[in-house]
Amino acid sequence: MENVLGILTGMLAILLIFGGGPALVVLVYYFSRKAKNKERMALIEKGVDASIYLKEETTFHTVLMWGMLMGGIGLGLLLGYILSIYTPMREEAIMPIMALLFGGIGLIGYYVYRRKTETKSAE
Questions:
Q1: What is the SS3 assignment for 123?
Q2: pLDDT tens for each residue of 61-93
Q3: What DSSP element (H or E) covers 102?
Q4: Which of 18-22, 28-32, 94-98, 108-112 is the least confident region?
Q5: Which residues contact 94 (CB under 8 A, 6 or more apart)?
Q6: DSSP letter string over 28-94?
Q7: What average pLDDT does this structure show over 15-22?
Q8: Is-contact 71 106, C-beta < 8 A?
Q9: Taking a C-beta distance cutoff of 8 angstroms, is the pair 40, 53 a contact?
Q10: Are residues 31 and 83 part of one domain?
Q11: How far lies 34's CA from each of 1, 27, 28, 39, 56, in Å?
């Protein structure tokens, strides 16, 4: 009986871990879309412009920001791996530190670029 209970507990844990997370994401997405649709329909019934709910287009700056963030994280992971090989630093500690550091540097670089282009276009 204990063996069967252990197997059932293990199967339930696996189902909750691998099935619960995706199911939760799908439910949150569904109910947020449903609420947004209700709001949009209420605005349309009142005669208010519902154009605020139009999907915004992906701009060059959004793509650039994500590219610089992901490039910074990748560069940080690469540098963290190299440091873990050639120094006595532990890989478990140095990899996330370097990924976060270079990801932040990538976002700062994006901010500097964006600010520079905005001031240039304002002139």
A1: coil
A2: 888 999 999 999 999 999 999 999 999 988 888
A3: helix 91-122
A4: 18-22
A5: 80, 83, 84
A6: HHHHHHHHHHHHHHHHHHHT---GGGSPPPPPHHHHHHHHHHHHHHHHHHHHHHHHHHHSS--HHHH
A7: 82
A8: yes
A9: yes
A10: no
A11: 45, 10, 10, 9, 19
In angstroms, how far is the first alpha carbon of the chain from the final one? 78
What tokens appear for 54 in the block? 């139009």
pTM of this structure: 0.56
- Between 91-122 and 60-86, two packed helices, what is the crossing angle to 10 degrees? 150
**Residue where one domain finishes, among candidates 36, 51, 66:** 51
73 and 24 co-located in one domain: no
Q: How far apart are CA 114 and CA 108, in angstroms?
A: 10
Amino acid in position 39: E
Domain span holding position 106: 57-122
